Automatic annotation (TrEMBL), chains A, B:
Belongs to the peptidase M32 family. Coiled coil: none annotated. Pfam families: Peptidase_M32. Signal peptide: none annotated. This is Metal-dependent carboxypeptidase. It is an enzyme of class 3 (hydrolase). Its cofactor is Zn(2+). Keywords: Carboxypeptidase, Hydrolase, Metal-binding, Metalloprotease, Protease, Zinc.
Length: 505, 505
């Protein structure tokens, strides 16, 4: 078999896996949206069947042989050619999938399924001790996973590679140190400011049916293609791109709080526009898959915050919003509304945090999961460490574990290494937007004031979406923005925005 | 490998196929209900992948070996034991799937996909000549399929076996002869009666949201489990049982015609209650699958017509219906409504036909597809033969092919042999209901007047649903009703009901 033939066969297998995995995507979406209550057991069997088939096909030794044949050829000389990038990423996935022993895969599946159930109850009952033994097992198994995969310097490097290939603990430590050094004082100044928004205007009556119409119109305006996607309602909002022509997003509506559904829809629309603009021809291969979790999050945060919490966006949308919710907003000025949606206030819950405090929540989790994994922190000491560090970073006392170390689902499903991608997303979003502003100048905000988001969307299509996994996140950032990732654009953005709003400097 | 081991392995494989095929069920449901327009291409790839995998697993020669091992043992001595029935039906499926050459399977898939598209346009444009060459190919390929499968007496026997195993052309001819001999004169008498219903009361304003609430409540009352199913809206109503705990039905609402959604929901609920009450433990094996298309249709027709178009049902529901649609029905008496929903009138379209004329539509199709398959009728002569026989059977001139031989989708997808199962369903429904009445006497109608359908549902669970494919349809009928299938109970039911309503005898 020639290298070209081997590569063609790899692509064929990869595309077949893409189709197979997209079936699981549809089943999972249905599970979250419309499946009747008693359908859960069958759905579990369906998902297990598809996952096992997918794993079996992907770890077939033949895949290893094909990779070896292509790697020994000139086809991959340029790591950013089609073959170069596809083989690089398939090799990463194949090695990871084949290095982890089947027994460990099964044990992880078993323990994390149980851990998620126990976590849900423990959170409800504020009962960390009931969750602790499960977390202990998860940490132990993730350590074994890291050892099986192999790593340099810190086992965490093996775990973050699953979400953000190419990123290291050392880089993240530098990023977070730079961030917290500036964020903590900024937040303190904001909190101390006498000028404060009236957030209560967002907690008036916002009828759900009108929220839906308004949010869908905004999603269309920024570029979501409803002929290639849908918006539904679920308890936990998500975006699921099945493949070309079909990407589904969800949100949840709170009739007494405007932000929840609306900014959720902008966020998921950001994710969805990435999925809807991946190169169709490469569907099923790495070139048709989003670059990394951090870059994916940059797309959601860019539309949610950089655009959706910006003045020009509301210059266009606020009159429409007032028309849609006259009884709630007739007496609220655009400026008062804009200030309210940009309320900065240290709070206990990550998913409710504002732009300025959000990354402090992540810094805390990054620190603690590093320590858990290395063994410097025991699961028994976690609640105390959480409370201590939370107060140091955010200035608040943690009243209970439910609003402390039990608040997030991630550790229960084994997602150690996932949290930093949220912060990476925020930083990439700011750096991308900074590059857009440099390219288009004030014109881009004039676009927004007219309700025209096509140039921004086109730029993101061009510099981010169409590349799939051709470049690793760092390289993509360098090419799109002319510089490696830095916290500076994000910090400048925050300082500029909130200094003006709160009258601090 | 012992016979017991072989049987266990067969069951394991069959259950795995059940799970695999249920994934395709979910994808197909989503396709009909919520899939965005541009998702069609990917959905086609997903369905093709799953279908091909299913075919490959089912026709694996190992399955043939396992079947052979079990068949040579005592395990199948009793053909109605678990192993006896499962192996009998798996063998039938395996032989059928392996006897048809792969090239023919692919050609049939190709031609019928194209034929359905062409048919849809041809029907819209009343253009039979554009469809004729495709139908010609379908008939030719179905003839080849019959030859590959093998048959006695008539190739049609090989085709009907796919839908109604054990039934033959000879039996069907006798049934249809008996039916038409009595139906045609009954319909003539009804048409000539001076007493006629005012059907226009059903064509008033019936707001869709209220129709939905009313239909869902009726579905619950007769026994649909909404925790194990859903009701959604589609262009073409259907029922899809994915497996234990998840069966979905759909309907379509016409704001100016009550019957369409309501009787559609009763019909699909009848199908769904069969699916929801198949034995869960046998899911994926023949014992967990409905007996035949005819028996399935008996369940939908029983609830739609025998129950839902009966007086006792409306003794309970009509006051509720008037409350739900006061402006449409306040001035309509229960008797006038009951007469209206039992309007008998020869009409051109099968799916709109009443209980008395419906089977004449099927008799026509059975006659014509027999002749097409045997070569006694050419596709060129089909429209003329249709018009001639339609007038003879139903007394109406066919104005065009769109309302003639182009009205049904079945031939375009290769479903020659399918139509008779509709009539079998009507006959089984009447015979089952006759047995129920013999068992419970007038008590069963007293149940209905109270809105209590549990005894009827329980009887069907006991005598039909729980058996899966343990018995062939004929044997199931014999056991449930004490007699082989006969058109008599159906004809008695019709004569009694409509003689009284129309004052004819």
């Amino acid at each position: 078999m020639t290298a070209s033939e081997a590569y063609a066969e790899l692509v064929r297998r990869s595309k077949e896996l893409g189709v197979l995995n997209s079936c699981a995507g549809v089943l999972n979406w249905d599970h979250q949206t419309y499946m009747p209550r008693n359908g859960g057991a069958l759905r579990g069997e369906q998902m297990a069947f598809l996952a096992s088939l997918s794993h079996q096909k992907f770890t077939d030794p033949k895949v290893g042989e094909l990779l070896g044949t292509v790697e020994a050829s000139d086809l991959v000389r340029n790591p950013e050619s089609d073959a170069g990038a596809n083989v690089r990423e398939l090799r990463r996935g194949y090695d990871r999938a084949t290095k982890i022993p089947q027994a460990l895969v099964e044990e992880l599946a078993r323990v994390t399924t149980q851990a998620q159930q126990v976590w849900e109850q423990a959170k409800k009952k504020n009962d960390y001790p009931s969750f602790r033994p499960l977390l202990e097992q998860v940490v132990k198994l993730k350590r074994e996973e890291a050892n099986a995969v192999g790593f340099k310097e810190h086992p965490y490097n093996a775990l973050i590679e699953e979400y953000e290939p190419g990123t290291t603990v050392a880089e993240l430590k530098t990023l977070f140190a730079g961030l917290t050094a500036e964020l903590a004082p900024l937040v303190r100044k904001i909190v101390a400011s006498p000028k404060q928004p009236d957030k209560s205007v967002l907690e008036r009556e916002f009828p759900v049916d009108r929220q839906k119409v308004f949010a869908e119109a905004a999603a269309v305006a920024i570029g979501f293609d409803f002929h290639s996607g849908r918006l539904d309602t679920t308890a936990h909002p998500f975006c699921s791109g099945f493949g070309p022509g079909d990407c589904r997003i969800t949100t949840r509506y709170n009739p007494r709080f405007f932000n929840e559904a609306f900014f959720g829809v902008l966020h998921e629309t950001g994710h969805a526009m990435y999925e809807q603009n991946l190169p169709t021809d490469h569907f099923g291969t790495p070139l048709g898959v989003a670059c990394s979790f951090g870059i994916h999050e940059s797309q959601s945060r860019l539309w949610e915050n950089q655009v959706g919490r910006g003045r020009p966006f509301w210059d266009h949308f606020y009159p429409r919003l007032q028309q849609t919710f006259p009884s709630a907003l007739t007496d609220v000025s655009k400026e008062a509304f804009y200030f309210a949606i940009n309320d900065v206030r240290p709070s206990l819950i990550r998913v409710e945090a504002d732009e300025a405090t959000y990354n402090l929540h992540i810094a805390l989790r990054f620190e603690l999961e590093l320590a858990l994994l290395s063994g410097d922190l025991t699961t028994g000491d976690l609640p105390g460490a959480w409370a201590e560090r939370f107060e140091a970073l955010l200035g608040l006392k943690v009243p209970d574990d439910a609003r402390g170390c039990l608040q997030d689902i991630h550790w229960s499903f084994g997602g150690i290494g996932y949290f930093p991608t949220y912060t990476l997303g925020n930083l990439y979003a700011a750096q991308l937007m900074d590059a857009v502003r440099r390219e288009f100048g004030d014109g881009i905000e004039e676009d927004f004031r007219r309700g025209d988001f096509t140039r921004l969307k086109g730029w993101l299509n061009q510099h981010v979406h169409r590349h799939g996994q051709r470049y690793r996140a760092g390289e993509l950032c360098q090419r799109a923005t002319g510089a490696p990732l830095s916290p500076k654009p994000f910090l400048s953005y925050l300082n500029e925005k909130f200094s003006a709003l709160y009258g601090v400097c």
